[in-house]
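User: Just a sanity check before I run the rest of the batch. Below are the structure tokens for the first item. I only need the designed sequence back.
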């Protein structure tokens, strides 16, 4: 006959019995189901990450024409495009190329005959208000042979307010230019616009050099964490002065490509003096005839990669 259990053994046996009753409930939780859901979440995350990478690094080129126009008459956009920069973005390589086009380049303006390339915007706006940006894209495509699906146009008065909203822009001048000595100079919006557009003792080629220097300085300024608190207000100001047909879904891709290139990584080119022949038209205008045999190799390097 087994001995009678002690009070402690009876208590322990009761605890074991209680545990054995609840144990099947614990076993019924099916940890394999949790593992499957975990793997599904991981796979979904990987899929979304792959789609995001495919979008941001899509293996196709995007070309955008950047236009700067002067202060037009009130209520209109009737102005010439004094600044014309053809930009190209290659997301897989993080490559951004920019070609500055002289405003006095003498070309065929579709629908209006031979004239300065910067007149295409003016003529089109005068004929059909709102058609200037499309005409500017068309004249570049027709003469340079580069597909230009998108355009960004900014009014210079808006550029002044944008720079002021950033707190000014710091230019690192490699040499004395436009009344400023070489070195670092902080300019407000009015000073910056005057610097870019200065015509005293300079020409199209100097203006294009200053324009590229200014654009790089703005990008460098916007990338500084110290300026980030100012960016929302600055971009609101910029948006009020900009007209573009670049779709919203494309903005992140272009922005990431630009960030990967960085201000100093932009491949900035210009139509140089060696690529044109100055001449005077029958009407007495001093213009520049393109030498396409000199320009085309550069176009192939920038837009044919």
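Assistant: Here's the designed sequence for the first item:
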């Amino acid at each position: 006959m087994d001995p009678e259990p002690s009070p402690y053994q009876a208590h322990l046996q009761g605890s074991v019995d209680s545990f054995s009753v609840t144990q099947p409930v614990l076993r019924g939780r099916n940890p394999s189901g949790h593992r499957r859901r975990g793997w599904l979440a991981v796979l979904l995350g990987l899929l979304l990450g792959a789609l995001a990478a495919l979008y941001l690094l899509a293996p196709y080129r995007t070309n955008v024409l950047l236009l700067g126009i002067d202060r037009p008459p009130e209520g209109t956009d009737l102005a010439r495009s004094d600044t014309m920069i053809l930009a190209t973005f290659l997301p897989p390589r993080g490559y951004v190329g920019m070609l500055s086009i002289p405003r006095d380049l003498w070309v065929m303006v579709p629908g209006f005959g031979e004239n300065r390339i910067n007149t295409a915007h003016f003529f089109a706006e005068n004929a059909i208000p709102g058609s200037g940006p499309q005409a500017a894209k068309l004249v570049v495509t027709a003469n340079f042979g580069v597909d230009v699906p998108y355009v960004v146009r900014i009014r210079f008065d808006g550029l002044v307010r944008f720079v002021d909203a950033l707190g000014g822009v710091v230019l690192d001048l490699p040499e004395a230019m436009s009344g400023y000595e070489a070195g670092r100079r902080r300019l407000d919006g009015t000073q910056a616009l005057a610097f870019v557009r200065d015509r005293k003792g300079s020409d199209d080629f100097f203006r294009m050099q200053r324009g590229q220097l200014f654009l790089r300085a703005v990008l460098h300024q916007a990338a500084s964490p110290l300026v980030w608190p100012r960016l929302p207000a600055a971009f609101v100001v910029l948006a009020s002065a900009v007209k573009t047909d670049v779709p919203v879904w494309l903005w992140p891709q272009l922005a990431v490509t630009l960030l990967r290139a960085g201000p100093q990584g932009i491949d900035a080119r210009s139509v140089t003096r060696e690529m044109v022949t100055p001449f005077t038209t029958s009407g007495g205008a001093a213009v520049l005839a393109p030498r396409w045999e000199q320009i085309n190799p550069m176009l192939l390097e920038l837009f044919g990669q």
